[in-house]
Structures are given as C-alpha cells and as structure tokens.
Amino acid sequence: MKKSIDYLKEAKEKLGVESDYALAKALKTNQQNISRYMAGGSVMDDYHCLVVAKALGIDPMRIIAAAQEEREKSEEKREVWRDFRQAREKQGGQALVPVMAILGSLMLITMTALPSVSSAGALANDYILCQICCYCGSWLVARGSWLVARGSWLVR
C-alpha cells in the first residue's frame, strides 16, 4: 500500500513541478512543510493530506489513513489503520456504481420537477451547471438566475 509521501510525490509529478518550492506554491503552503515531508522528517498532517488529495482528485481518506498508519507507534494501532485502508479500497470500487445511479436519479427528478416553475419551458433543456460532490453527498443545479440546492429554490 502507498505511503503518504508517495501521494505527495505523485502530486508533484501530476502538477508538473520540479522543486519543493514550486510544489509548496502549487499546494498553497510553505516550502518548509513540503521539504520536511519529502525528507521523511515528519508525516503530513490532515490539512496537507486534504490539499494533496484535491490536487490528485482522489478520496482524501486514502491519504489521511496512510498518514495515520505511519504516525502510530503501536503495531496494533497500525494494523487497525491498515485494515481500514484495505476495507476502504475494496469498498470504493463497489460503492461507485450505486452512488452514481442514485445521483443520476436525483438529477432526473430535479430536471422533471423544473418545468413546474414559471418560465420552465427553457429550464429543462437549458441548464448551465451541474456539479456533483461525492465527498459530501451534496448536489447543485444552477440555471440563469435560479439556484436549486438540495431541492429548494433560492434566488442567486
């Protein structure tokens, strides 16, 4: 299984930067933190795990769990984190299909509900933005000056 430093190196490669300074700038942090992590002087804190996960476009818990496993001094606690990581990776592939089906259904329901609003003729065919955030399970559909958030209409 990957260590937290492997994710940091992967982010460095994905962002196309050469130095720790450039990586720190891309991740909006300071060079001292990045250099310390790269040298193995310390393990990434949760904030930096989140920032790296965002840069890589992956689930932050993958990196946070790796860092927690590395931080633990007790072999028993490291084993718990290792089991958690393995279970989460197995679960990740299986959970994706049902989650996407549910989110697709929510979008379909939203799109069919939109015509009941005044001037809805254009709304159903003409939405501008649809963003699905799998991490928090929230969804958002925006069109023109209207905003639909979790089923309620709000004026933008």
What can you tell me about this protein's structure?
This protein is an alpha+beta fold and 156 residues long. The protein folds into two domains: 68 residues, lambda repressor-like DNA-binding domains (434 Repressor (Amino-terminal Domain), Orthogonal Bundle), CATH 1.10.260; 60 residues, no CATH class. 58% of the residues lie in helices and 12% in strands. The chain has six helices and four strands. The chain starts with a helix and ends with a strand. The C terminus is likely disordered. InterPro entries: Lambda_DNA-bd_dom_sf. Keywords: Membrane, Transmembrane, Transmembrane helix. One of its GO terms (molecular function) is DNA binding.
Q: What would the keywords be for this entry?
A:
alpha+beta; DNA binding; 156 residues; single chain; 434 Repressor (Amino-terminal Domain); membrane; transmembrane helix; 12% strand; 4 strands; transmembrane; 2 domains; 4-stranded antiparallel sheet
Q: What would a concise description of this structure say?
A:
By secondary structure, this protein is an alpha+beta fold. Helix content is 58%, strand content 12%. A hairpin with a 2-residue loop joins strand 3 and strand 4.
CATH architecture of the largest domain: Orthogonal Bundle
List unreliable stretches of 5+ residues: 118-156
Order of strands across the biggest sheet?
A: 1-2-3-4
Backbone shape: flat
Percentage of residues in DSSP E strands: 5-15%
Distance from N terminus to C terminus (CA atoms, Å) equals 45 Å
Total helices: the number is 6
Tally of individual domains:
2
What's the gyration radius in Å?
21 Å
Q: Write down the overall mean pLDDT.
A: 75
Biggest sheet layout: 4 strands, antiparallel
How many strands appear in the DSSP assignment? 4
SSE string, helix = H, strand = E? HHHHHHEEEE
- At the third CATH level, what is the topology name of the largest domain? 434 Repressor (Amino-terminal Domain)
User: Can you tell me the CATH class of the largest domain?
Assistant: Mainly Alpha
Helicity range of the residues?
A: 55-70%
Q: Which class do the helix and strand fractions yield?
A: alpha+beta
Question: What's the name of the CATH homologous superfamily of the largest domain?
Answer: lambda repressor-like DNA-binding domains
